User: What shape does this take?
Amino acid sequence: MMRDGYVARWQGREYQASPDGDNIRLYQPEPGEGFEEVRAGRYVRVLPASEIEDLAYVRTTCTWQGQPFIVLGEHDAWLRVEYTGGRWPVAEAMRLEVFDFGVYQGWAPASEVTDLREQRV
Assistant: This one.
């Protein structure tokens, strides 16, 4: 599973999370005590930040064609990636899409991606 977002540890279990002021929203795909359904397959529980054991931002990084990327998502045998090397000529040569000023994204065949790892930032 490729992750890019906040995670929180509460009562020894890790959840997808979202900071919200002095509170942390925890998400899970199944019903649970204290969790409310926000849509099919998505349940949320809001807790004071003081009850959270750990909060971190997790992102998946990789190398594609010798260049550094963040993995934003996956679909079938493809990974949605964002170039983090900061060099426009490299992004242009790789035919990456200009997503925003200085932000270049594209679809990489998963079979061509190396050094896939999760990092806490």
